[in-house]
Design goal:
Shape: elongated
Helix content: 40-55%
Order of helices and strands: HHHEE
Number of domains: 1
Strand order of the largest sheet: 1-2
């Protein structure tokens, strides 16, 4: 079973992934490659696009995580939960995957609610 993400831990993890992605982009930038044919140019361009798409996805994930962690959104979520006709139980935070418009799947930690178990009004008789 996966460990539930910590409150600020997911934002920090995303930030570390962004830092790593920028290092990869720097590696691409600082690597001397001679382009001698169209296939070579296409390969370099594809590598650059993958690196920049990764950064864009991670930065989007960071902004989503910051929004999910915000007091304003938490207040609205609490209002919504209170307005529900059925009682909901906060199960803590769970990692959810979101696909960005550029196609990258990113993970953010969001509150997870489930229905409370109904108490059985009829008690089962114990067998002796």
């Amino acid at each position: 079973m996966k460990e539930a993400p910590k409150e600020a831990g997911q934002a920090e993890e995303i930030q570390q992934q962004i830092d790593q992605a920028f290092k990869e982009l720097d590696r691409i930038r600082n690597t001397q490659q001679s382009v001698t044919d169209p296939d070579g140019l296409q390969a370099i361009e594809r590598e650059i696009l993958q690196a920049t798409d990764k950064i864009a996805g991670l930065m989007t994930a960071l902004k989503i995580q910051q929004a999910v962690d915000s007091d304003e959104l938490n207040e609205k979520a609490n209002e919504l939960v209170q307005a529900m006709p059925e009682k909901l139980k906060n199960q803590g935070r769970r990692l959810v995957s979101i696909r960005t418009s550029r196609g990258a799947a990113v993970k953010v930690a969001a509150p997870y609610y489930s229905r409370k178990k109904k108490k059985n009004k009829r008690r089962k008789k114990k067998k002796k």
